[in-house]
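[job 4471] stage=fold_predict status=RUNNING
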Amino acid sequence: MEWLLIVIGILLVLAGIAGAVLPGLPGPPLSFIALVLLQFRDEPAFGEDFMILMGLIMIAVTVLDYVIPVYGAKKFGGTKKGVWGSTIGLVAGLFLLPALGIVIGPFGLIGIIIFPFLGAYIGEKMSGRDSDTALKAAFGTFIGFLAGTVMKLVYSIVAAVYFFIGIF
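[job 4471] inference complete, writing structure tokens
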């Protein structure tokens, strides 16, 4: 039974890290569930205080992931269309470039960084913004989006490290 918990936990950890970058997958909650699974072993891997702390951080990261991009957009004069454009740009960068065979190297990385920015810019232009205002708003939207993504990724990686420590 323990090995099944560990295998499911490993899958959740991997999905959590992927979900930190991919929109639609709740990365931090999946990573936290992996930690929770280790608590069902014969000897729980972590103490109650640790689990409460990780749960509270997971909730904070998840909430902030929705707040920070909107704050970045609003701070720089962005709109909802800019935020949506940034998200669509990320999906395009993640799936369009690999479909074109550009997975590694500078173009893959640049695409994952540039596409959300371009998506935010296009979204702002669709809102009727002039080029300078759209560029400024796209920058704010992108910075907020990037901050949220980094925050989720850090949490998911930390949870993964603790998960593997907890196994041993």
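[job 4471] summary: The two ends are 16 Å apart (CA to CA).
[job 4471] exit 0
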